[in-house]
Amino acid sequence: MIVNLLNKLARRDMLTERERAILEAAPADTRQFAARSTIVRQGEPLTQSMLLLEGFVCRYIDLADGKRQILEFHIPGDFIDLQGFPLKSLEHDMATVSRAKVALVPHATLRHITETEPHLTRLLWFTTLIDAAIHRQWILSNGRRSAIARVAHLICELDARLEAAGLASGGAFVLPFTQTDIADATGLTSVHVNRVLRVLRDDGMMTFRSGRVTITDHEALAEIAEFNPAYLFLDSQPR
Amino acid sequence: MIVNLLNKLARRDMLTERERAILEAAPADTRQFAARSTIVRQGEPLTQSMLLLEGFVCRYIDLADGKRQILEFHIPGDFIDLQGFPLKSLEHDMATVSRAKVALVPHATLRHITETEPHLTRLLWFTTLIDAAIHRQWILSNGRRSAIARVAHLICELDARLEAAGLASGGAFVLPFTQTDIADATGLTSVHVNRVLRVLRDDGMMTFRSGRVTITDHEALAEIAEFNPAYLFLDSQPR
DNA sequence: CGCCGGTTTGAAGGCGGTCAATGGGCGTGG
DNA sequence: CCACGCCCATTGACCGCCTTCAAACCGGCG
């Protein structure tokens, strides 16, 4: 059931059979959410963390004037609020983008893992740091990249992550986002995202229509984005 | 010697005497760096992590066209490349801003801590997640805040962090940055940062001259920045 | 069939960038 | 001790990317 997480970890380091079994047994329950529903509220005390099994989730902050900034997108296999375990609450909101299904892991179970499984603990710690590395790329995008490069970089990131999760192949994948979602992630307006997507389509680099992305020239897309997947740490080594 | 880190952790949770002693004994060595020197290069394999004792450090990424994005500033007491312990290398560069002094903690020591000190491990994990929370605010700033709000938010952040570290009081602190540093952090040009600083000064909110910040109207500054220090998790609770 | 959320397109405006020149503070060397 | 050079701060004029505002379009669904 949590095969996506296991694949993700196994890609970064070796998991022992015992560690696999512990993770398999970790979820106490599963839960379904409708699309566009808030699943974690900022400041709310947390006693369990969610592992995303199906669907897309985002974290975001709204400003007083109604502007929204999406901070990160999550895909199946992501331990979406594992950060809430050491932090005890989040300083932002999380919401589903599409319908989603999650497994719930009690913090007590995670705490037990930290007390008996140092290697697994380091791996869980590691996964939270991937989120931070993704954040840093978004700071760079929003701060210094042009509109077209921002959108291109986001698509390259999602392609690489979905491909690693087995949810994309050959640059084609389902992405149930609106253009407003992309705008809120890249710090642009939906109007301008629309124009940027047209340029990317006209230049033969990618298309995004009715919730499906097709990358038609990965090399060109990665080049304007200055995309280098090293920050996703997809290589395997002892942690 | 590592009193700043101990204060920082003790502010977030209780440290036992044994844990204090372990942290005190953790540094194998100290090292000094001149201002404006690179101290970690992206991709370089890391075998130790640095605890900042004195001075200011930043992490950054340069783009092909010469544009620079600073990703985070670090102040004394920060475990600046603790992330390099689970990650094994960083995907960006780090450099000093001012002269700086660091304590070096071997990864073997950190690994030993993860194997024998679960509570301390959770606290170290926690501190790396504060960096991620700071990153998220920067994504928001660069994506959705106006130029004046970005600069104001950065100053509020540094004030809060320096105050917590005992390095600022009453909104006055030493900040050995250039206007270009602030520009590279906020995704602006140094020219525009200069204009923004003039507005903030003329409006009686803050001054920044010859490496010193003086906040003259904290309430107004926090208001235009929409600054809420909750994301720094400065409250104390069991982790 | 008509609403509704999302997409697309056009026209006009503004925030912040670019380019360029001046000023100012400080360390260094003659 | 002063002159020079260098880096940083400051200011002005103009420019352009992206925003804003507004309207039309489109497809799905009750």
Would you write up a description of this structure?
The structure is a homodimer of 239-residue chains. Chain A is built from 9 helices and 10 strands. Chain A is of the alpha+beta class. In chain A, helix 6 crosses helix 9 and helix 7 packs across helix 8. The longest helix of chain A is centred in the middle third of the chain and has 27 residues, at 118-144. Chain B binds a DNA duplex (30 and 30 nucleotides) through residues 146-147, 178-180, 188-192, 194-195, 197-198, 210.
Tally of strands of chain A? 10
Helical percentage of chain A: 40-55%
Query: In this structure, how is the largest beta sheet of chain A organized?
Result: 4 strands, antiparallel
Cross-sheet strand order for the largest sheet of chain A: 2-6-4-5
Low-confidence stretches of chain A: none
C-alpha Rg of chain A (nearest Å): 18 Å
Q: How would you summarize what this structure contains?
A:
2 copies of one chain form a homodimer. Chain A is an alpha+beta fold. The first copy, chain A, has helices spanning 3-12, 17-25, 84-87, 107-116, 118-144, 147-164, 179-186, 190-202, 218-225, and strands spanning 29-33, 38-40, 48-54, 57-62, 68-74, 93-96, 100-106, 172-174, 206-209, 212-215.
